[in-house]
Amino acid sequence: MQETLILEPAQPASACVIWLHGLGADRFDFQPVAEALQGVLPGVRFVLPQAPTRPVTLNGGWSMPSWYDILAIQPERALDLDQLEESAGSVLALIENQRASSIAAERIFLAGFSQGGAVVLHAAFRRWAGELGGVLALSTYAPTFDETRQLGAIQQRHPVLCLHGAHDEVVPSALGRRAHDWLAARGVAVTWRSYPMGHEVVNEEIRDIARWLAERLAG
Q1: The dihedral of CA 106, 191, 65, 5: what is its sign?
Q2: Residue 138 three-state SS
Q3: How many domains does the chain have?
Q4: What is the pLDDT of residues 167-210, one digit of tens each?
Q5: Rounded to two decimals, what is the model's pTM?
Q6: The domain that contains 148 carries what CATH number?
Q7: Per-residue pLDDT for 1 more than 60?
């Protein structure tokens, strides 16, 4: 994946968070959050990839950073599945790069906001067959969670933290909750956190993320 921003910790990295931004944003969007988390999570490398710039049908065909094209809201968020698969494949390549740098797979975490969250959920539970430290799903949904699909034993061990705004008008909270419930029904250790916010990130949410990551890394 091109133009990836990598934030190295002050001490040698022993864990990694691969964090995908949302539609129309860029790799610098979550840099302040990553730097704040590094202040309380020593030894964690943050990898912030950049989505390609391409036309987005839902936004009148205007080109912008996008992990996949959104074709319509109805039927429920119709999207370009080939582009989603391509983006998920790039995430898997980043995982492999971290493993090649001596980061154990169980200490690699995937995080994504909005459209980026949809990609990491797909990558973790539809594409990646190995161990993972866990998944952070921020203000997002899971467009490829098929009700007929089950998970393997390794995928069931991926812990997930779902964080969503109760007043989100871009990705309604009900869509995020649906992803949570799908995972819970398949034996995944998934936690739901709701905040009195819209489609955004707040300090309380960042503190919850720091606590959750610290617990996973300590365990």
Answers
A1: negative
A2: strand
A3: 1
A4: 999 999 999 999 999 999 999 999 999 999 999 999 999 999 99
A5: 0.96
A6: 3.40.50.1820
A7: no
